[in-house]
Specification:
It is built from 14 helices and no strands. By secondary structure, the protein is an all-alpha fold.
Length: 289
């Protein structure tokens, strides 16, 4: 009975297998980007960019309907515009970059919802915002696998500069690490992974598989490499459990995957060996004695 619950849906339904393969491809790369966002104290930036791609996705929908290439291209342009525009506005006006990001994110979210509602119905809006496993076709799989391949290759080249920027940005600047270029390239990878994820998870939920496993991973390892491995493992387990929940409980796939990742975060926060709540409570009597 338990084996039927865990494996039969993926054996019987091709759309679930495609969704699982796609989410596993996302799990290999996206959580590692989330880890660097967390280490650089930019966790909310991913959420801003995830909302920022919505007008571009909506524009692609208005021009070509539910065409993945059109929506992906529009989302990529919109996400990069938000990432570059926030920095440009903060430098031009002397304001804080996070304030510019917040303003752009709110405008982008409202514009995207208005655009989709103008030409589409409630079904199209729900699919774009929250994702649909039925929408993960071969084109979506190719996009997810391609984004994961590009991201892993780029991270292999940029790993040391990114780690250096996280822990000693002053030294990185002194040795001429070209932090601004690495930063923009890194944000471009974040946007690319959010675009790849929106078909299965939706524009509102795509950031969940990127950030929640990364935040949970800090409770399982102290080194950056160890946290990266933990984040990938947590993301893969969350994707599998979330798709099962989506199938059995008849809930949208995006929220289901994010809820599974949220449960992993709660368990990690409570029981993780690195700064977990349970470990802290057990150490207190010993230290008091």
């Amino acid at each position: 009975m338990i084996l039927d619950l865990l494996f039969t849906p993926f054996l019987d339904y091709g759309f679930l297998r495609r969704a699982l393969v796609g989410c596993l491809a996302l799990s290999v790369a996206a959580p590692v980007l989330g880890l660097f966002l967390m280490l650089r104290r930019m966790s909310l930036t991913a959420d801003v960019l995830g909302h920022g791609i919505l007008p571009g996705v909506a524009a692609g929908f208005l021009l070509a309907g539910l065409s993945l290439p059109a929506m992906a291209a529009g989302g990529l342009v919109a996400g990069l515009a938000v990432a570059v525009g926030a920095g440009a506005l903060s430098r031009a006006t002397g304001g804080r970059e996070d304030a510019s990001l917040a303003a752009l994110y709110l405008v982008a979210l409202a514009a995207g919802v208005a655009m989709v509602s103008w030409r589409g119905g409630a079904v199209e809006l729900t699919n774009l915002l929250f994702g649909s496993v039925l929408g993960v076709d071969d084109a979506a799989l190719l996009l997810m696998a391609g984004s994961a391949t590009v991201t892993l290759g780029a991270l292999a080249l940029a790993w040391r500069p990114l780690v250096l920027e996280c822990f000693d940005p002053g030294f990185a600047q002194a040795v001429g690490a070209r932090g601004a270029w690495w930063h923009m390239g890194f944000l471009a990878l974040v946007v690319l992974n959010l675009i790849a994820a929106f078909q299965a998870l939706g524009t509102l939920m795509a950031v969940g598989l990127m950030m929640l496993p990364a935040i949970a991973a800090r409770h399982w390892a102290r080194s950056v490499g160890g946290m990266a491995y933990a984040a990938v493992g947590i993301a893969a387990c969350s994707a599998y459990a979330g798709l099962l929940l989506s199938f059995h409980a008849d809930v949208p796939s995006g929220p289901a995957v994010v809820l599974a990742a949220g449960l992993c975060w709660l368990v990690s926060t409570a029981c993780g060996p690195v700064d977990g709540l349970l470990g802290r409570l057990l150490r207190r009597p010993h230290l008091a004695g």
